[in-house]
Amino acid sequence: MTNSLIQKAELLNALHVPGTPLVVTNVWDAITAKIVSEAPGVKALASASHSVSNVRGLQDGEGLSVDEAIIAARIITGATDLPVSIDFEKGYAADAAGVTRNVRRLIEEAGAAGINLEDSVGAPKAPQFDIATAAARVAAARAGAEEAGVPLVINARVDTLAGGGEWAEAVQRANAYLDAGADVIFFLGLGDEDKVKRALDEVNGRISVIGHPGAVPLTRLAELGVSRVSFGPGTLGLALAALQRAATQLTALGDYPDDLGFPFEI
């Protein structure tokens, strides 16, 4: 598995191209991983911890144990041959040594080709670990990947703006995480085109953003030079909205929705 996983990690990294962003439609279980992986043009997958938790009746914010998180990741990776980036929250560990241990387990036991790693202490996006501690946790994740022998793609999240913090600190954090071994910076709070441009100018590496209604359009994000776009729990919301609409229509003795006949098999 190691050689195959190395190739997947290398492919995942290569797909993060400024101006030709990797678009990952986030998944949360085996069937969503399979269905999204079969969509035309999809080259890699990413999980969303919020969705993984919510479908189990849990709140986001490491409501799962590390063992449960690794099992959930293995279910997703086992449903597709594509590279998968796992939203690993804060590494499910209180210290850097624990992050190293858990990231190695995630690679070896679940076959993750990449991870998201958060820099907030709790479930809300504030407060954050101090910069040195957060950078050390990124370095710890890289150490876990090196122990596993896989060039894991680390998408390090910067929550500063989303938590009401200052721009200068957000950029400082982003560059510190890149120096510590991150491959891509998941920069939250880039709500308009000017902020996206500024981040691209001031961060010394590739930028990942989240897309949602009202955000900078995908085509413009590509033109600006973003390297990755994801949608977090928004894709679960999309699925639930469609299900609720169908339930309303069916309960009212309406027509059968065409999507009721959508073919699927795990």
Automatic annotation (TrEMBL):
PANTHER family linked: CARBOXYPHOSPHONOENOLPYRUVATE PHOSPHONOMUTASE-LIKE PROTEIN (AFU_ORTHOLOGUE AFUA_5G07230) (PTHR42905:SF16), PHOSPHOENOLPYRUVATE CARBOXYLASE (PTHR42905)
CDD domains: ICL_PEPM (cd00377)
Gene Ontology molecular functions: catalytic activity
Organism the protein comes from: Cryobacterium arcticum
Identification of the protein by name: Putative carboxyvinyl-carboxyphosphonate phosphorylmutase
Gene3D superfamilies listed in its UniProt record: Phosphoenolpyruvate-binding domains
